Amino acid sequence: MEVPITNFELLWYRCELVFAAWEFWQVAVIVAAGPIANTCLFMAAAISSWLIRNIFKSYPKYFYKVVAWTGVFAILDPFCVLLSDLVSGNTENGDMFKFSVWFSKAGDNAIVGSYLTFFMMITLTIFTGYLWHRFMVGVYMNGRILDLYRRLSGTFKSFFVPMDHEVSIKYL
Fold first, then answer.
1. Beta bridge partners of 17
2. Which residues of 114-136 are buried (b: 16+ CB within 10 A; e: fewer)?
3. Can you give the pTM of this predicted structure?
4. Which helix (H) or strand (E) holds 5?
5. Measuring CA to CA, how many Å separate 162 from each of 39, 93, 166, 168?
6. For residues 23 and 112, what is the distance between their CA atoms, to the nearest angstrom?
7. How many CB atoms lie within 10 A of CB 83?
8. To 5 degrees, how large is the angle CA 80–CA 65–CA 33?
9. DSSP labels, 6-27
10. How far is the C-alpha of 24 from the C-alpha of 170, rounded, in Å?
11. Tens-digit pLDDT profile for the chain (172 aa)?
């Protein structure tokens, strides 16, 4: 994007990136890059677990849990970043405050930047939450959650339990 970076510092709890963007879309791309990268990481893990299960007909339970928790972190990432920015007092260069600072420097109302940040992060969170829901229902543990839901919400007539000698040993 040809945005000059004036400062890059890697801390143990965040990555400090100070840049001089000329256009608003450049700031928007940089702010959205974190949650989108986490969503892409989660989706790569979810798709690989689905592919491995379909190719090899099994997938370890432990790795299903790792993928599921990766999805939870991807959903909660914007809130963790907001909490980190608030606790550290990073209101000038924090991701959740970049739009407000941009609009303040442009001479506009900073509330517009706050609203845009909120809208963008909620949209990304809802999208990631939907992808996580689809993973949990359809892929996680071979779709056991969907099976459990169908068993709990099914009617009595939808389950056929044969009496003794109604089904042959060969059929079973």
1. 8
2. eebbeebbeebbeebeebbeebb
3. 0.81
4. strand 5-10
5. 46, 67, 6, 10
6. 16
7. 12
8. 35
9. EEEEE-SS-EEEEE--SSHHHH
10. 70
11. 888 888 888 988 888 888 888 899 999 999 999 999 999 999 999 999 999 999 998 899 899 999 999 999 999 999 999 999 999 998 888 899 999 999 998 888 889 999 999 999 999 999 999 999 999 998 998 888 888 888 888 887 777 676 766 777 777 6
Provide the token pair at 5.
């970076």
The amino acid present at 169, given as its one-letter code, is: I
Residue of 149, 116, 120 lying closest to 133 (CA atoms):
149
Token reading at 80: 């963790």
> Which amino acid does the sequence have at 56?
F
Angle at CA of residue 144, ends 57 and 76, nearest 5°:
105
